[in-house]
Amino acid sequence: MPRPDGVLTTRGQSFLASGVVLLAAGAALGLGDLLRIGTVLVLLAAGAWALSRRPASWLHVEREVAPGRLAVDELGTVTLTLRNAGRRRSPLVLAQEHVAYPLGDRPRFVVPSLRPGEHQVMHYPIGSVVRGEHALGPISVRVRDGFGLTSRLTRLSGSRTVLVVPQVLPLDASALPGSGPGQDDDVADTVALHGEDDVTIRPYRQGDELRRIHWPASAHTGSLMVRQEEQPSRRRAAVLLDRRVTAHAGEGPHSSFEWAVTTVASVVGHLQDHGYDVDLVTEPDTGHERPVTLDEALTTLARTVLAEHDGLASTAGVLSRGAAGLVVAVVGPGSRTDLEALAATHRTGTASLAIVVDSPTFGRAVEGRPGVSAPGAETSHLAHPSGPARTGHLSAAASVEILRRYGWRAVVAGHGTVPALAWRQIASSTGRSVR
């Protein structure tokens, strides 16, 4: 239900005060005329106040957003329709739409008097530099009664959310590592064991038929393997996003976590454009039942937040259960245990790429801006302002060295690094770090 807020205006307060004084004077002096006039003034003020408490049920609000989903830095338009659903002509009202802070300023409108069933359509722009789900509404209207005794502020029911997804930035098409069956020498074909040359063996995935389990290969590898009589027409890739709160720094859209989210979205879109089925790994229980579409990936990334969990090992373990020929990990610094757990998921025949975000450089960039709170102060939920200079955490450069020793291509990306440059370096044969 709408929530009204009726307040007596200066005129209304004067009516009420005058009525009380006249009632007191009439009672003291025994003058009936003063009592009657005082009673009328008090009743007018009290009646106007009581009526102002009634909700503006005559006003219905509808919202449409075009486009239905926005990307970061993309502008959209909200169409607001106010309809008089009552049986009487509506008064002139001043309306203000409540919008989430990232979407812009709160628009105000003057809604003219409307006949029953008549509507008024208004438009206002929105845009956000912060991904996520942001609220539109409710709308507040202010109405005065016919005597001007009250000013009624009513917050109408009804609101909706706008999903703002991360940007998908263009990446260098020439910097695409070969992967998957039938590609270059980075990835070898997984072939059948024990002489079954006409059958390909791959790891078991949820939903596979039990009759397709290849027991000799399962015994040889220690995990369930299934027969695949035909090679898949598309290559498979897995993209991992490190969500550990201890791995990121910076504030708001300038944090290392937001940079990582944008990079992951761009990599997913880039790989899908080049014929890959992509698994998006953001949580330890992320499954590999089916690849995600770009829309699904962007929706997931738009709602993804930093998480307090034990470490990277549990999330990285998902990679070892998949059948991807290409793995791309965007991670922050961590402990030696975390990095070795991720590095150990590299398998022969898989191209493993890692972009290690030098998150302390994002924290220092925030601290260097005027008006930004020092480390330890309350900050945005998006990331910690101070870098992951925590006990047991390796530097980004040391993290890269561990990954390379296990056969990964790995680079460091610091504050100011463009995702396209990081991708070009990681997908090239050199794998030099960029800052």
From TrEMBL:
Keyword Hydrolase found: no
Membrane-spanning segments: 12-29
Region (Disordered): 369-391
DUF58 domain segment(s): 201-285
InterPro entries per the UniProt record, alphabetical: DUF58
Keywords: Membrane, Transmembrane, Transmembrane helix
Pfam families per the UniProt record, alphabetical: DUF58
Protein known as: DUF58 domain-containing protein
Taxonomic source organism: Arsenicicoccus bolidensis
